[in-house]
Design a protein that fits this description.
GO terms for molecular function: amino acid binding; aspartate carbamoyltransferase activity. Residues 157-302 form the Aspartate/ornithine carbamoyltransferase Asp/Orn-binding domain. This protein is an alpha/beta fold. The protein folds into 2 domains: 7-135 and 290-312, Aspartate/ornithine carbamoyltransferase (Rossmann fold, 3-Layer(aba) Sandwich), CATH 3.40.50; 137-284, 3-Layer(aba) Sandwich (Rossmann fold). It has helices at 16-33, 58-69, 83-86, 90-100, 114-121, 137-151, 169-180, 209-213, 237-244, 248-251, 274-278, 285-311; strands spanning 47-52, 73-77, 104-109, 125-131, 158-162, 184-188, 204-206, 218-221, 259-261. The protein has a 5-stranded parallel beta sheet. A 4-stranded parallel beta sheet has the order 2-1-3-4, sandwiched between helices. α2 (58-69) packs across α12 (285-311). The relative contact order is 0.17. The structure holds N-carbamoyl-L-aspartate. The site of N-carbamoyl-L-aspartate has 11 residues, from α2 and α7. Residues 58-59, 130, 136, 139, 169-170, 223, 225, 263-264 line the site of N-carbamoyl-L-aspartate.
C-alpha cells in the first residue's frame, strides 16, 4: 500500500497511487460493512476526536461509524456551540486537544486553511472533513470509489460538475482528483457561480447544460450553498432550476448510461428534480453515502498504520 502521508488534508498532495491505495482498501471495507459482523480492529486502542466547527449530518455520522467499526474510541466535540462562539483561538484548541492525547482528529471548519494550521500544532493524524471553500478530500475519494464501481475505471471518463462551483470545496477536491486520475472534467454553471481563473485547472467551462452535458458519463450536481452567498448570485431559485436544475430532459443530453451524483444535502427542486434523485437506475446518491463510510475507514486505517510506524521510531 502506497500511502506515505501523516495527514489527509486535501487531494492536492496525493499521487495517483496514493488515491488508488485508499480506494483499494476501501473496497475491502465495503465487503466488511455488508457483512453481519461489521468489525475490524485497525484502530483498536486509538482515540478519534471529531471536531465539527460547521454543521454536518452525513460526514460526521460517517466518520463516527467508520471509527467505531474499526475499534477506535470515538468522541464528538460539539464545537459550534462552544469554543468558536467564545472566541477561543485555534491554537488554544490545539493545546487542549494535545492534552487529551488523541490519535486521529477529524476537523471541519468554515475557514479555508484552518485544518492545515491545526495539523501543524497537534501531535496526531488529522483528516480534513471540509475547510471553507478549499478541500473536502474524503468526499472526492468516496465519489471516486462510487464512479469506479459504476464505470469500472477512473480514467478517460467525461465528468460534469454542475452548479455552485464557486462556493464548493467538493468541486475543488473532485477537480483535483479526477484530473490526477486522467479523466476530463467539465464545469457547468452560471458565470456568477464560476470561480475566476478556474480554467487553469485544466477543466472546460460551460454556462449551458445542454452543451455541457453532451455525452458525459457522470453528472455530479452540487448544492446551492446559500449560507456562503451574500446575495445577487442567482436571479431566483425558480429561474435557476429552469436553467441549471437537473431534470429528465437535461439528463437526456448525457450518455444513456450516465450516472447522477450529489454529495448531499440536496435542495430538491432547486438543483435537482426529486424523481431523478430517487431513480435507482440513474442515481448513485445512496451508494455515495455507503462508500463514504468505507473510504473513511480506509483513510483512517492507512493514517493509523503510519502513526504507529512513526511512534515505533
Ligand atoms: C458538502 C460539504 O459540506 O461540503 N456536503 C457533504 O459533505 N456531504 C456539500 C454541501 O454542503 O453542499
Amino acid at each position: 500500500m502506497s500511502f506515505p502521508h501523516a495527514h489527509l488534508l486535501g487531494i492536492e498532495p496525493l499521487a495517483p497511487e496514493n488515491i488508488t491505495a485508499i480506494l483499494d482498501l476501501a473496497e475491502e471495507y465495503v465487503t466488511l460493512n455488508r457483512s453481519d459482523t461489521k468489525h475490524g480492529d485497525a484502530l483498536a486502542g486509538l482515540t478519534q476526536i471529531n471536531m465539527f466547527f460547521e454543521a454536518s449530518t452525513r460526514t460526521q455520522a460517517s466518520f463516527e461509524l467508520a471509527g467505531k467499526r474499526l475499534g477506535a474510541d470515538v468522541m464528538n466535540m460539539a464545537m459550534q456551540a462552544s469554543s468558536l462562539k467564545k472566541g477561543e483561538t485555534l491554537i488554544d484548541t490545539a493545546l487542549t486537544l494535545n492534552a487529551m492525547h488523541p490519535d486521529l482528529l477529524v476537523v471541519r471548519h468554515p475557514q479555508s486553511g484552518a485544518v492545515d494550521l491545526l495539523a501543524q500544532k497537534v501531535r496526531c493524524a488529522v483528516l480534513n472533513a471540509g475547510d471553507g471553500r478549499h478541500e473536502h478530500p474524503t468526499q472526492a475519494l468516496l465519489d471516486a470509489l462510487t464512479i469506479r464501481r459504476a464505470k469500472g475505471r477512473l480514467h478517460r471518463l467525461n465528468i460534469a460538475i454542475c452548479g455552485d462551483i464557486a462556493h464548493s470545496r467538493v468541486a475543488r477536491s473532485n477537480i483535483l482528483l479526477l484530473g490526477r486520475m486522467e479523466s476530463r472534467v467539465r464545469l457547468i454553471g452560471p458565470p456568477t457561480l464560476m470561480p475566476a481563473g478556474i480554467e487553469e485547472f485544466g477543466v472546460e467551462v460551460y454556462d449551458d447544460m445542454r452543451a455541457g452535458l453532451d455525452g458525459v458519463d457522470v453528472v455530479m450536481m452540487l448544492r446551492l450553498q446559500k449560507e456562503r452567498m451574500d446575495g445577487g448570485f442567482i436571479p431566483s431559485e425558480r429561474e435557476y432550476y429552469h436553467r441549471y436544475g437537473l431534470d429528465a430532459e437535461k439528463l437526456g443530453y448525457a450518455k444513456p448510461d450516465a450516472i447522477v451524483m450529489h454529495p448531499g444535502p440536496m435542495n430538491r427542486g432547486v438543483e435537482i428534480d426529486g424523481e431523478i434523485a430517487d431513480d435507482i437506475n440513474r442515481s448513485v446518491i445512496q451508494d455515495q453515502v455507503e462508500m463514504g463510510v468505507a473510504v473513511r475507514m480506509a483513510a483512517m486505517d492507512l493514517l493509523a498504520r503510519n502513526l504507529r510506524a512513526r511512534r515505533a521510531g
